[in-house]
Amino acid sequence: MLILCNVSSLVRCSYAVTGKSLVKWLLLMCSVFLISLLLIMDAFTRGKLSEWGFDDLADEWEGHGIDEEAFNLLTENDVKDLIPRIGLRRKFLHKFQEYKTVSRLIETTDEGKIIKASYGRDKDFLRNKLAELVIKSELSRMKDARISSARFMQLANEINDIFPHESPEIYYVPYVNNKGKPKAARGKLFSAYCYLRKHYKKYGLIPSSNKNIISSLREQNTPEEEAIQWLKNNIEPFTEVKERWKSTFQSRTVLQKTYSIFEYFKAFPCLKLPLGFTLDVNDMFLVLERRQEALASRKLTAQPVPF
Known about the structure:
By secondary structure, the protein is mainly alpha-helical.
């Protein structure tokens, strides 16, 4: 709006001045126009620098014309020129890499480019692949790293910025405890995180003694309680659903005594999947297996009846 006002002022007043005064006036108006444009363009950069704690850099970067577009295109060499001090530069690069995680992966990796191409109307968007790509990047430096709830939300919002029709809630909803009724964290990013950590631990990439998988995100639970909460909030990947379903057999047997059939199906949405019936079949086999073990145990311990 400020720019339009300056232009309209230029048109109205050009009839009232002539000669040298016109030249001076035109130069003045052009200067005002450029300053206004610079201020508008610099609002994003100044705000982002302030948010990250680099307010002292704002004036200098304004002089270099670092607007939003230029900011998003910065390379490590650009930052090296703009921030000569090594310590400050490393801090900025850390923030910048976090800020650009998803867009960097989408634009610079083959898998990211395939995911980007799958987005659009009448296309099968590769959401699970996207979540796995992002979480693999987060855990690339240290497999045992814990991702905070704030970081999950930041990544989910960045996905939404790049793919506007992808709601952040699809990718992460934080743990809540509403009046003693806990709801586990959920979403595609969180599922990918749990899945990858499980496999890293299985193959020795994470020490087996580490039990703090998601302690920063919610209260500590036993492994079985954690698996129950996960099943109540996730339906994929189905291979993990089956594993967690089997490992929680004992706890779910107790729940069945307190839940109606309707409540039980509502509590575990995985039962409504096309292959959900296989979970019930597995439970039936486990029941039969345990009964057979109990019968075998009785036979082994049976004593001959004296006559």
